[in-house]
Amino acid sequence: MRQDHIISAKQLSRRDIEAVLDRAAEIAADPSAYADRHEGSLLGLLFFEPSTRTKMSFSAAMKRLGGDIVDMGTVESSSVKKGESLADTVRVVEGYADALVLRHPSEGAAQMASEFVDAPLINAGDGAGQHPTQTLLDLYTIRENAGFDDLSIGIMGDLKYGRTVHSLAHALTVFDARQHFVSPESLQLPRSVRYDLHESGAEVREHTDLDDVLSELDVLYVTRIQKERFPDESEYHEVAGEYQIDAATIREHNEDLTVMHPLPRVDEIDHDVDELDGAQYFQQAHNGVPVRMALLDMVLEESR
Amino acid sequence: MSDDPELRVSKIRNGTVIDHISGGQALNVLAIIGIDGTSGEEVSVAMNIPSDRLGKKDIVKVEGRELSQNEVDVLSLIAPAATINIVREFDVAEKHRVERPGRVEGVLECPNRNCITTESEPVDSAFEVLDDGVRCEYCDTIIREDIAAHILVS
């Protein structure tokens, strides 16, 4: 894989994706073989927004490769608070680390930052834009559970602002997948993602009611609908309530369904779903470590 | 040729004549080339003149000014049929059709308030030109309607 920076799922070919997933599977099968692989290497973490899973799994991945991390800490405690530009911050931190991981609240932040550094930069989420490493672990989880052949996947919830949705939708266009998007009308896919899906010739359907497609899905990818997207709380409760799923519904309509979620969930997946074999969201989160180990391994190898 | 619409405004000695601008877009064209009348250039504008090709067209003549490539690029987005005549000593010295560029840099402002290019970072906006609009190279936002409203005022 020749990728200097990992900015968007759009830049990843099927071959790139499969190379990362294959490496991740190798790592998951025998993590000890990779334990010293990047001893002495440092990963710079720049998280301008709160993160639990992404940040911890990048840290765990780097340490399990034998490397270590240098962490900017929170925005409040950093020079950003003094008004430093992102372009300056990444140029400084580049001198401290072999690769950089950036999460930022503005769309396009990772693209811009990558133009100022030579060290490989990995986008860990840019506003409502992209989140390509989440997508790689999502794809890994899909491959382990349903495979990509003739895949029928439902993606439900906040499709407008959900960066994990945008990245996943782009990446799935290189596979033989039918994508069903299920959301309230106010949270449908943004114009730019629709444009790309259309251009790629992907097989795409949009629904406002999950019942229309539930029985034909192999995978249901659920995302959280956030309160702040709605003008008032009563409207939020009314809409969000329609995009929830529970064990009884799954048992009745589609027993073999694989259920995924980038987490954190609030109440869009009932806790009674956790007991079903198809509930894969915790395993999906765990997969973040081998997948990010694979990606870091390839990116650091490339930059040597 | 009393029906020649170009005769409605006077000839210029040295400068640029932009013809076949889509009807009603002349003032946006002036905005692109940064002319608001305060810096003293001699400018003639004819708007909504009947045109065989466009239905209605606008014409802009500017004395003492030739367009940069960037200006021509943005012009092509709002006036794809425009022709640019460079006039020297009352004669048309060069005649250009505008061509749609692959991208435009630093001339449009991204309408997405959450785009990194709208923050105080040392980066110019950049848009990929699509068949029916433009697309921010940073945040992917697509502009289809009223591109002229997003011209960066320098």
From TrEMBL, chain A:
Keywords: Pyrimidine biosynthesis, Transferase. The keyword Cell inner membrane does not apply. Pathway: Pyrimidine metabolism; UMP biosynthesis via de novo pathway; (S)-dihydroorotate from bicarbonate: step 2/3. Its EC number is 2.1.3.2. InterPro entries: Asp/Orn_carbamoyltranf_P-bd, Asp/Orn_carbamoylTrfase, Asp/Orn_carbamoylTrfase_sf, Asp_carbamoyltransf, Asp_carbamoyltransf_Asp/Orn-bd. L-aspartate binds at residues 82, 163, 224. Residues 5-144 form the Aspartate/ornithine carbamoyltransferase carbamoyl-P binding domain. Belongs to the aspartate/ornithine carbamoyltransferase superfamily. ATCase family. This is Aspartate carbamoyltransferase. It comes from Halomicrobium mukohataei (strain ATCC 700874 / DSM 12286 / JCM 9738 / NCIMB 13541). The lineage of its organism: Archaea, Methanobacteriati, Methanobacteriota, Stenosarchaea group, Halobacteria. The gene is pyrB.
